[in-house]
Write a structure and sequence with these properties.
The chain has one domain. With about 200 residues, it is an all-alpha fold. The protein is about 75% helix and about 0% strand. The longest helix has about 40 residues, at about 25-60. Helix 1 (about 1-20) packs antiparallel against helix 2 (about 25-60), helix 3 packs across helix 5 (about 85-100) and helix 5 (about 85-100) packs antiparallel against helix 6.
């Protein structure tokens, strides 16, 4: 689907460039933006390597176990069907921690691992349980304490203060996570235990 979207945008850009007689500007922009894309990819890769390494250190040093104990009350409130020391609960904790740190790309493999663990304990294979739906909501509307990816993008774009967006990020992500959790809980009650 995305390949069709990008192909369509490329074809439309070329078409409008030809129709408006601005093919020279289209060519110059294409070359400039290719180098900008490579530079941005390298900067983002550096940030992701740093934070992924720190997350691995946290896992090996049992910081994740400590975070698991810290988040246990929240986990019991949101995922009350899950045993606190289960593999699924630990994977969810790691995923939520990565999201709290604004590491969307690092959170993705952790979210996939959490989904696999939830699938293992689900009584109905191939159908999303309420816990799986809630995990998707928590990932999509994640609360971010430190938006590292956004800060890296702002820094790459030349921002003098890439973290000045923190209050806005905290407010927006708090509201989105709250409304997402309320909606997930509402719909899980509305449609009953059919998905469990």
């Amino acid at each position: 689907m995305m390949s069709w979207l990008f192909t369509g945008m490329l074809v439309l850009s070329l078409l409008f460039g030809i129709l408006n007689g601005r093919m020279e500007q289209v060519s110059i922009s294409a070359v400039n933006e290719c180098s900008n894309a490579v530079t941005l990819a390298i900067q983002l890769a550096g940030v992701m390597c740093l934070w992924s390494g720190l997350m691995r250190i946290a896992e090996v040093s049992d910081l994740t176990g400590k975070l698991s104990r810290l988040f246990r009350p929240v986990m019991k409130l949101l995922f009350w069907h899950l045993p606190a020391d289960s593999k699924a609960a630990k994977a969810i904790i790691m995923n939520l921690t990565a999201n709290l740190l604004g590491l969307g790309n690092a959170a993705t493999p952790l979210g996939i691992a959490a989904m696999k663990e939830l699938e293992k304990i689900s009584p109905r294979k191939g159908i999303a349980s309420n816990e799986m739906a809630l995990l998707v909501v928590l990932n999509t509307a994640s609360l971010q304490l430190i938006p590292t990816t956004t800060a890296a993008l702002r820094l790459a774009a030349g921002s003098a203060a890439p973290m000045e967006i923190l209050p806005a990020v905290w407010l927006a992500s708090s509201m989105s996570i709250l409304s997402g959790i309320l909606a997930a809980k509402f719909f899980s009650r509305l449609f009953g235990k059919g998905a469990d």
